Amino acid sequence: SGVTSLSAVSGVAAFGDLRLTGKAGSYTLSFAIPGTDLSVSQVIEVTAGAASKFKFIQLPQDVEAGQTFAQTVSAEILDATDNRVLTAGTGTVVQAVWDINGVGGSFGVTYGFVPSQGLIEFNGLTWSIANTYSLRIEVASGSVLTGIAATSSPLFVVTPAGPSKIEWVGSEPTGGVSNGLLDVQPSFVIKDQFDNEVEVAPLVTVSASVVSANSGDVVRVIGGAATNSGNQFVNFSGLGLEALVDDYVLSFSAEVAAGVFASVSTSQPVTITHGSLSALVLVTPAGGAGSDLAFD
Fold this sequence. Notes:
Layout: E1 25-32, E2 39-46, E3 53-58, E4 63-64, E5 74-78, E6 94-100, E7 108-113, E8 119-121, E9 131-139, E10 151-152, E11 156-159, E12 165-168, E13 175-177, E14 180-181, E15 187-191, E16 205-210, E17 218-222, E18 225-227, E19 233-235, E20 240-243, E21 246-248, E22 250-256, E23 259-265, E24 270-273
Parallel strand pairs: 4-11, 13-24
Antiparallel strand pairs: 1-2, 3-5, 5-8, 6-7, 6-9, 9-10, 9-11, 12-15, 14-20, 15-19, 16-18, 16-22, 17-20, 21-24, 22-23
């Protein structure tokens, strides 16, 4: 509501720049001469003005890498007085920009969202790299609609997916003495299918075994299992082989309660050498013999 006054000239009141600013809808526009009962009115429809900004309707939520948001992210295109611009659509493409920790400079962009009557639904929106983000929405280059300010969501977290693989951390073992420890104790990092480290991992057990053709020459695998401690790392500390002197290939299988999910092997054989002398074994007993004659 509001009142605008001007003086008539030669009996004509010309409202040259009359305008309404506010919410779209039906309004009654009345004209009257003060001090008389002369008046006239009309009903007018006020529609949205020029598109000027975005507003989130459904904000992004914390989500697992590779998964869509539980509630589809959506936004609307508004004019300066917060009316949805229903004509915003054809020829306009909106993109979603992933900003790490809300800092400008895109880490990645998801393209191709077209408004419908001023509403944008970001269906199927996913991201695979775990981190803390804000989602910035803006008009893509080349769109018909211009002059709309970008807007960013509050921060949310893309968390790693479930454990999918293990990778070596540091060097692999190359050898060791029989019945002793390997020269390098293996360490592994747990990752999901997108290469994110699964930092808050479930209990993961990694078991060592010998998979080369000469595995029958192994008496036992010493310290052959290790677990993580609620983080993304599995570190062996007492792994060794009691085995005949030879080269062996080791395999490491990672499992959770649901079963084995990944395995890796040593890229080069592990060489087992003699351990410390611990016994003297008579291989061929002497036979009988005459005095001053060789044993049978």
